[in-house]
Design a protein that fits this description.
Bound molecules: uridine-diphosphate-N-acetylglucosamine, uridine-5'-diphosphate
Oligomer: single chain
Distance between the termini: 11 Å
Number of helices: 16
CATH topology of the largest domain: Rossmann fold
Strand content: 15-25%
Structural class: alpha/beta
Radius of gyration: 20 Å
CATH architecture of the largest domain: 3-Layer(aba) Sandwich
CATH class of the largest domain: Alpha Beta
Number of domains: 2
Largest sheet: 7 strands, parallel
Number of strands: 13
Helix content: 40-55%
CATH superfamily of the largest domain: Glycogen Phosphorylase B
Shape: globular
Length: about 350
């Protein structure tokens, strides 16, 4: 039996880990120990995903009592190190590019435990993003790099992170696995569209929470103004991330659209599938928009998912009001063209399991 210690801590990681945990269960040859760093802690940002998506209760669940990056990462390191020493896993499995990802990779590599990174190789080439720092360091420390796309494979090659020193493989994207599987359940279990009185295809879905937008008053104000202008013409549903809520209060900004609390994954998939178009700075939602054939206006200056902008499925609008309005006007009446499959075949998680036991 191969023993894997999985380190997760934020909303998108719960979704990715749920897809892989299902595959681990089906595989039968892997024992998974689950560690939740406590980075996200509200029910709507954490517990709801464990309940809905049948993620096992974490074997370790820490709490973080700070918001600065270094102290947060340091607190996580302490707990993760103790868990690794106790569990003696064959591999530590980390996801994406958050502080929890880096803490998991760093703690493991210091103890000479191999690190496997799901979503390896993504780059924005913008080092001011905390996520870019986390992903570059994590890739450097990993011995198994599971890339979601060909572009990610190429990025690692360009950095000299290649075989035979490590395994580098395009597995496809575990978020595609999750979206396909949970969309079926969402159709049965979510009634959010009816509850909010929304019409199919009759609203825009928006989310934003990235530090580069929320912590910069000018950028946050520009996005809020763009959404408020669009809301005069369109219904806009916006599940608000707690970080964004906090910064909006701090900067005295107000949204005039349908603002709701963060929702669980079933409701999110339902809101997405019934929407007309998506505006977001979320990494995950950019791809999910594509999975369900929705155009996406990206509220960032660069994206890791360049295959989508190159194919014309999404457009970078940054935090510039005119660009955001122009993006919506341009995309609103266009028929979605979906000729390429960039993210694998929905079986990335099973492939990852095969590699984990090798
Ligand atoms: C983190 C990740 C980001 C990812 C996002 C997913 C880092 C550096 N950033 O950003 O890459 O896209 O998660 O959603 O790891 N808060 C709550 N309740 C919660 C969680 C957060 O109130 O359950 C508030 C707190 O005020 C906290 C702030 O949000 O200080 C920011 O949380 P943090 O985990 O530091 O970063 P995110 O913005 O969530
Ligand atoms: N999501 C969710 N509820 C919400 C907002 C987002 O379930 O209220 C899902 C979304 O569908 C995607 C994931 O959370 O699967 C993305 O997480 P987030 O935007 O927080 O982080 P990022 O992907 O930008 O790191």
């Amino acid at each position: 039996m191969t023993k894997v210690l999985t380190v997760i801590g934020t909303r998108p990681q719960f979704i990715k880990a749920a897809a892989v945990a299902r595959a681990i269960k089906q595989h039968g040859g892997i024992q998974e120990v689950l560690l939740h760093t406590g980075q996200h802690y509200d029910d709507a940002m954490s517990d709801i995903f464990f309940r809905e998506m049948d993620l096992p209760k974490p074997d370790y669940h820490f709490s973080i009592n700070t918001s600065t990056h270094a102290t947060m990462t340091a607190q996580m390191l302490e707990g993760i190190e103790q868990a690794i020493i106790k569990e003696k896993p064959d591999t530590v499995l980390v996801y994406g590019d958050t502080n929890s990802t880096l803490a998991g990779a760093l703690a493991a590599s210091k103890l000479h435990v191999p690190v496997a990174h799901v979503e390896a190789g993504l780059r924005s080439f913008y080092m001011d993003m905390p996520e870019e720092v986390n992903r570059i360091l994590t890739d450097r420390l990993s011995t198994q790099l599971f890339c979601p796309t060909e572009v990610a494979m190429q990025n690692l090659k360009n950095e000299g992170l290649t075989e035979p020193d490590r395994l580098v493989v395009n597995t496809g994207d575990v978020m595609y696995d999750a979206a396909l599987y949970y969309a079926k359940q969402s159709a049965k279990k979510s009634d959010i569209v009816q509850k909010l009185g929304l019409k199919k295809d009759g609203y825009l879905l928006a989310t934003f929470h990235r530090a580069e937008n929320t912590d910069n008053k000018e950028r946050l104000e520009a996005i809020v103004k763009a959404i408020n202008t669009l809301a005069k013409e369109h219904t806009i549903v916006l599940p608000l991330h707690p970080r964004t809520r906090k910064m909006m209060e701090q900067f005295h900004l107000k949204l005039n659209c349908m603002v709701i609390d963060p929702v669980g994954y079933f409701d999110m998939l339902s809101l997405l599938q019934n929407s007309h178009l998506v505006l977001t700075d979320s990494g995950g939602l950019q791809k999910e928009a594509y999975f369900f054939h929705k155009y996406c206006i990206i509220l960032r200056d660069q994206t890791e998912w360049v295959e989508l902008t190159q194919a014309g499925c999404s457009v970078l609008a940054g935090a510039v009001k005119e660009h955001i309005l122009h993006g919506v006007a341009n995309m609103y009446n266009k028929q979605f063209i979906n000729g390429n499959i960039f993210y694998g075949n929905g079986k990335a998680s099973a492939l990852i399991c095969q590699h984990l036991v090798k």
